[in-house]
Amino acid sequence: MLEHAALQDSIRNNKARNDALDYAVDSTLSCIMGREAAYTGKLVTREEILSSDLDLAPAEYHFSTTPPKRAVPMPGTPRPR
């Protein structure tokens, strides 16, 4: 409800407003936390994810016609490094 009031106020008073980045960051972080919780079978906190050395980027980028082969995640087992 307060978000709508703030949005309407910004429109009526010609005040720039950009909340999209905050929502995108929180949403992405929630997805990463859920992914790690599902893969490990453990509770994952925001602090653990923010301080972890998790790197979801591939070792190298290249174009290919076939997708890379990845291990199938199993709950309760550590993710492959």
Structure summarized in a few sentences:
The chain is 47% helix and 0% strand. With 81 residues, it is an all-alpha fold. The chain has a domain of 38 residues.
Write the layout of secondary structure elements.
Blueprint (H helix, E strand, L loop, with lengths): L1 H11 L7 H21 L5 H6 L30
Question: How would you characterize this protein structure?
Answer:
With 81 residues, the chain is an all-alpha fold. It has a domain at 18-55. Helices cover 47% and strands 0% of the residues. The longest helix has 21 residues, at 20-40. It starts with a helix and ends in a 30-residue tail after the last helix.
Task: Count helical runs.
Answer: 3
Strand content: under 5%
User: What is the H-and-E element order?
Assistant: HHH
Oligomer category: single chain
Largest sheet composition:
none
CA-based shape: elongated
- Can you give the helix content as a percent range? 40-55%
Number of strands: 0
In whole angstroms, how far apart are the ends? 44 Å
Unreliable runs, pLDDT <50, ≥5 residues? none
Query: Rg from C-alpha positions?
Result: 19 Å
* Mean pLDDT over the full residue set: 85
Secondary-structure class = mainly alpha
